[in-house]
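S., here's the first fold you wanted:
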Amino acid sequence: MSDKNYKSSNLIKRKKKILHLKIWGLLILFILIVAGLAYLSNSDSAKISNIYINDTIFFDKKEIEKIVREELDGKYLMVFGKNNIFLLPKFKIEERLKNFNSSIKKASLTLSGVNSISINIEEYKPVAVWCNDSDCYYLNENGLVFNKASIDYDKNLVKFGDWLRDDPTGKTYTDPETFKKIIKLIEFVLKVPMKVVSINTEDGLTFNLHTDVGTRLLYEINDNPEDVANNLNTVLEKDAINKAQLNNIDYIDLRFGNKVYYKIR
């Protein structure tokens, strides 16, 4: 073997040795980093010990804390603890809380210290109730039935009936767009002045709006609420029907645009 070939062979061996050393060095460094992270993630100093939850109306805060604790329990890859501010499953907790109860509109998790997190629960606000023969349930702004109403619920809320059956929780009274139009019409009717106290429908197309003066308003879902309210106001003014006389009207049919019909009792 020539001197040149000998030197070349030694150079290759040296490079391989250096490469092996680098690989082992990187492997040891990786193991140390993993071990360090594993230690840190399971360290008591990094564990989440305090969970703050805002006040809720429709369920006990302890139920929320239980869910959070369950999600913080356990480890990633059987090594890295979840119960710390670095690796806590924030989005999974938020998603689970959102789906936990139909009254929850939004759930958010934020850090409030090295060992503390804050859970903010935003609940739906009732805009109406749906009632059967025995119970009433809250409806949100989209017509979703989200929780059973308490016995002393706000009696100023409009009462919907029919259309739904049994326990309606999680169901919608009608599609959100239609429901919002009905709520708008209710608000417009207040300016007449007249107050809608209950609503029912048999086919989901025509709605009977029962008012506090005993007169029913017939409304078609395809009609614009503001136009309907204007037509109602116009006919009341045109025919000089004051509030006292409204007691003698069985219904006012608002389903035919500018042509408004009404029936005397």
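And the second, which I think is the more interesting of the pair:
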Amino acid sequence: MRTTVLVDLYGTLVEPNWAELLRGRTALAERAGLAAPAAHHAWEMTHAARMRGTYGLLADDLRAIFSQASDGRRSAISARLLSQLAHEERENWGRGVRLYPDAMPALSLLRSSGLRLAIVTNASAEAASVVDALGLRHLVDDVFASCEAGLLKPHLLSVALRSLGVEASEATLVDDDPAQLEAAARLGFRTILVQRFAAGTSTATTSRHYAVSDLRQLADELVRAEPARRR
């Protein structure tokens, strides 16, 4: 069986520009007739629920945010306006999130080398939408987002394994969060830590995890290891 590589999204493949994202959200709040500070606070307060997809689709998330921001004192926003605002929020994230320069080359190399790839991310609906907006979906076999599965990592990793039909021992997790890698290692994953701003050499071994500062080095490592694993 081909080695399966599960790749985190934020901090690993993409980086958010929060100043840009917050400007977009301020514009959404104004369109909804709400004060920006109250709306931004509601975004924060609903974050955990939105990451698990508690409310439903993005329009439902916005309904919950705007309801909390107004303490239920304003009249309900129409479904049509919510749909328009959801579209604007997706566009906001498409503009406000950028690919790291090494992301596309690394995924393309891994894909062309026959490795199975999946993105596994803790993300709300708008954050997960960048997978399509940035053209990442066609480079992987599947995408597992917490807002769609109703579970966060590390539990989301087990969902991905079951869906892909592989064991943890046949999979590698690539992530910038050491806590997630520790949890994955306990499940039996091979783990690779992304340290984009690490000092010193670009590739190193930590106490528990192989570490890289550039995903192209990760791709080279996995591609070299695959023929040996198959023997």
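Why I say that: The domain at 4-15+98-230 is CATH 3.40.50.1000 (Rossmann fold). The longest strand covers residues 116-121.

Talk tomorrow,
H.
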